[in-house]
Amino acid sequence: MRAAATINFAKPLDLGRTLKLAIPSLVIIILIVIGWSKFGPFKRPLPATASQTAAKNASVPQQTEGVRSTLKPEGFNPASATCTAGQVQLVVENVSGTAPLTLRLTRANGEAIGEYQLDRYLLKQTVNLQAGAYTLKEVNHSAWVLQITAQ
Length: 151
What we know:
The protein has helices at residues 15-39, 50-59, and strands at residues 65-72, 75-77, 80-83, 86-94, 101-107, 112-118, 122-129, 132-138, 141-150.
């Protein structure tokens, strides 16, 4: 038969041993709490100052208006477009079966604005258009004309 284990409550605690175990555990818990508060999922961003908000808004580019047309064997579809004057993105999708193409943008008075190469399927070109009438033509196909009005 076994003797029952007895607990002697009169024996003093070994404070040195207790501290040796408690201090490292406490340090680990403190480090976890600090890390959680800095990088945890409940961290809230600090409110932005007025200068930070202004800088962020200034760095956001203004949205560019677009003129889109599809170039088919019979020409541009649609053959005319209207946009707001300013930065305009010309988008031409080539389904004509012909490539490469050279597109020339001119003002109504004949002044050349630019010439753009359409190698295969798509041209995306940002241009600055002042108010007025413009023509986008394929240089080797006189019937392929897109009339653009910037207001």
